[in-house]
Amino acid sequence: MSELLANTGTIAAIATAVVPQQGSVGIVRVSGFEAIAIAKTLFSAPGRQEWESHRILYGYIRHPQTKKLVDEALLLIMKAPRSFTREDVVEFHCHGGIMAVQEVLQLCLENGARLAQPGEFTLRAFLNGRLDLTQAESVADLVGARSPQAAQTALAGLQGKLAHPIRQLRAECLDILAEIEARIDFEEDLPPLDESKIILEIAKITDQVSKLLATKDQGELLRTGLKVAIVGRPNVGKSSLLNAWSQSDRAIVTDLPGTTRDVVESQLVVGGIPVQVLDTAGIRETVDQVEKIGVERSRRAANAADLVLLTIDAASGWTDADQEIYEQIQHRPVILVINKIDLITAEIREKLQSKIQNPKSKIVTSAAKNQGIEALETAILEIVQEGKVQAADLDLAINQRQAAALTRAKISLEQLQVTITEQLPLDFWTIDLRGAIYELGQITGEEVTESVLERIFSRFCIGK
């Protein structure tokens, strides 16, 4: 990344996913001082089409020496500063697939551009003042969003809903710092500092920082999702539950115990939260070597899951084997799923539910008849809420880097309150306050190091 910051120049990259025989359009993006010159070298627009900013030209991409036709394409022109990077930008909209976009990219590289590094287009947007650092991170979050709610939260960040309160808090800290430093430099010419007012203002800022920090778990849940493992004895309906829940035939279902030999995965969205559901092999003692491997993988999946759905057969009730499995997973959050309730009477069901003491969270389902899925999702969301994580209707959600900076800012602010209470000299006040100001600036990019930029943008894809 240090080379990237030192070496500006004109960059080019494929900006769309390249999927053989799948993509209808492929885009090659070029940004920098030579972008338009490169486009004029490679692209011919028949007729009297004007090479004006924010126009789309129709024409042909040809090799500049051999005049070989590479593709029939569209060219989008965006002149500085009215572009994503605030540099001259052109985009070649080619036919999708592999060959056309690869050939066009190669021609761009041969005619003055260099291959963009991961996230370099967005980095340039940040360095040129088009985005702040929170907005740049929101770009990556939007690209990687795994649910509508995650996308909405990323869009909110892209629109500055996180940057605004951070900037406001930093501005308030700067105002307080100016008041203190004025007293240090011109003590005889100014009235005494109102310490009680300063303490009140610092307490308010600290409270706002705490509220922002409380969204960290929300953000992590939306970005990474919830990993849920369905475990239990063989033939209790785990695969049927997955199929009913995902409304698909992801898992093979038979009356024979031990049908599932490996972990079957499905991606769902529950209450705005991305959920990775793992259907595991039935846990039991077996001499079958393949089934043994499946059982071991089931145990590993249960131990790695955020939430375990311990599934039992209603007709069999709570068996010693169920108790043994529960003892292996009880350190994880567990929901007991009493499946196949269509095979027992309501009276037996009531007795069964009251008899089972562990785990505390219990729901009843009939996976074969698609019953109980809504109750299952409600129970999952209740578990999430107990962890004080609210996944829906978020205005903003901070990430790990932002949370770390906010935590350091909060520590500085709390130390400042101690410093004031202990009546230490004003010079000591400014040390803690400057620390908080620096950390808040780290979040939006007013105070940023090259290593921070490297960590952030190295996680981007090339072309973004």
| End-to-end Cα distance | 15 Å
Largest sheet, strands/sense/barrel: 7 strands, mixed
Number of helices: 17
List segments where confidence is low: pLDDT < 50 over at least 5 consecutive residues: 251-261, 388-393
Strand-residue proportion: 15-25%
Structural class from helices and strands? Answer: alpha/beta
What is the CA-based Rg, rounded?
Answer: 29 Å
Question: What is the subunit organization of this protein?
Answer: single chain
Which sequence of strands runs across the widest sheet? 3-4-5-6-2-1-7
N-to-C SSE string, H for helix and E for strand: HEEHEEEEHEHHHHHHEHEEHEHEHEHHHH
Helix content: 40-55%
